Amino acid sequence: MRGGRRLFPLLPLALLPLALLPGLCHGREPAPGAVTCGSVLKLLNTRHSVRLHSHEVKYGSGSGQQSVTGVEASDDANSYWRIRGKSDNSCQRGTPVKCGQAIRLTHVNTGKNLHTHHFPSPLSNNQEVSAFGDDGEGDDLDFWIVQCSGTYWEREDAVRFRHVGTEVFLSITGEQYGHPIRGQREVHGMPAANHHNYWKAMEGVFIKPSLDPAKHDEL
Fold it and tell me: Which residues contact 125 (CB under 8 A, 6 or more apart)?
């Protein structure tokens, strides 16, 4: 927070639709099904059928930062993440996210970024994944490369997220927590690309793609 003001607005979660918004755009649409900068979405791990999640519960070991888990429920408001660039100018609202592009995933309800670092994860002893920062601003360990096969990250694609700083992949292998987050799955970083680190865009607000995001009407 700077000057007592949030750096970006949080959308009321009760108003989030589950389909593409018919937002007004100008110019050609290069990828109608692309995930775009500024979109708010949930991410489903395709192997374990759980959504990427965070909450105001800190790890009791490792970094002690805000924990990141996987949950089975599709309607949990703590599973929304906002797509942002390495800087706000590098990922303007409405711009399709390219395969190979570095992004930040900002947790909507707490304003912290998806983050990893050289701490062991509490259950599997892989690399800990946490949520870090304040009001969307953290550090260089918040950057993830979107790995996909085409030009753009398409909503129907299963993609991987490779961490820029440590080169691990955002993964789930099925370990479950006990109290106080019983049944939630451990999210961690793994060095190898495999079937545990595929993710698919699910519910959310998807900003309609535009090649000219500067002219994109505000919601």
Answer: none
Task: Count other Cβ atoms within 10 Å, centred on residue 173.
Answer: 19
Read off the pTM: 0.83
Q: Which two tokens stand for residue 157?
A: 């694609």
Whether 33 and 155 have beta carbons less than 8 Å apart is answered as yes
pLDDT digits (tens, 9 = 90+) for 158-198: 999 999 999 999 999 999 999 889 999 999 999 999 999 99
**Which of 44, 28, 27 has the alpha carbon at shortest distance from 81?**
44
Return the beta strands (E) in 21-80 as ranges: 40-45, 50-58, 66-71
**Does the domain made of 40-205 have the CATH classification 2.60.40.10?**
no
Q: Read off the amino acid at residue 64.
A: G
